[in-house]
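Follow-up to my post from last week.
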Amino acid sequence: AQKITQTQPGMFVQEKEAVTLDCTYDTSDQSYGLFWYKQPSSGEMIFLIYQGSYDEQNATEGRYSLNFQKARKSANLVISASQLGDSAMYFCAMRELISGTYKYIFGTGTRLKVLA
Amino acid sequence: NAGVTQTPKFQVLKTGQSMTLQCAQDMNHEYMSWYRQDPGMGLRLIHYSVGAGITDQGEVPNGYNVSRSTTEDFPLRLLSAAPSQTSVYFCASQKGLNTEAFFGQGTRLTVV
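User reply:
Got it. Predicted complex:
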């Protein structure tokens, strides 16, 4: 079963508008962490935002915010005021304890295209 | 700051050849890991290390070996390359488990 599910293979958004990228996760751990990364066409992986399972407030980093709904096991990334440079692949990832060791699991990604 | 340095950027191997992908970080991070990225799939964890002398398997470890003799270096060895190992490989380091991962630039490996 998929641990991290990103159901949107591709998304379009108009420049300056907000966009939400979906991420749902599956874990039985009480303590876990959720991450979002951006991968531009140049290929590097760039960290965007982190949310801990015990964090009561939704994480925010500049134009990025994480809509964390623990009961629904969702951790959607919201990008406000989209810019052309936001066009990229976006990956949701989870840090989970598996068989006594911590491992990181990535989703399959969402390709975002910002339109001028 | 160099961050995470990964070499080479591109490599073509023949089936059965061996090689080592190098990864070095200068941030004194304890946690280092190797991932592979295939089309239509997210990153999959190959091996990771929580400190010098300590390594463990990730999701797809078969055909790969790692060692961590120093905090800075975490090389990935392909013992006998197979076409199924054609992929983009990323090395990453983290200060802690709940902190951001810093990634290398990636290595595009083709096995023919």
